[in-house]
Amino acid sequence: MPHRTYYSAVFGELEQAFNTDDPLRAMRCFALPAVIRSKDGVQVFDKPVDLAIFFRRRMETNRSRGVKRYAFDLGEMVAAGPVGMAEVIWHRIGHDRYTNTRIWYIMVKTDHGWRIEGICNHGRGAGIDNREARAVASA
Fold first, then answer.
1. Which residue has the higher pLDDT, 65 or 33?
2. Closest C-alpha to 46, from 30, 58, 34, 62
3. Gap between the Cα atoms of 99 and 5, Å rounded
4. Which domain, by its residues, includes 92?
5. How many domains is the chain built from?
């Protein structure tokens, strides 16, 4: 039985989304499109349903190996926001002790302040710095 991933109380809605088996439900927490970095390279999804199908397929694969994972433990997600965005900030919000990975959310600076753009998992030594996140987000 995996340990629960603990988030700040402010992110109760995100925690609820992470504990669901329905990726479409989890998608409601995030602004899309998103960029998923995987071993196959960078895959871009323009619609929530595309991203949900991708995660459902990956989740089913993990289940077949007898491993239950959270929806977003499957790749590194970075914001793909409007061209020329001013800044992208990564904040650590938790740690998944089962998979030994750090859980992060992404804050994007807009004309109206900051907003949560996405959430990601930096797993097993993988990482992406602010400079690269900005480059991807404004590409």
1. 65
2. 34
3. 10
4. 9-137
5. 1
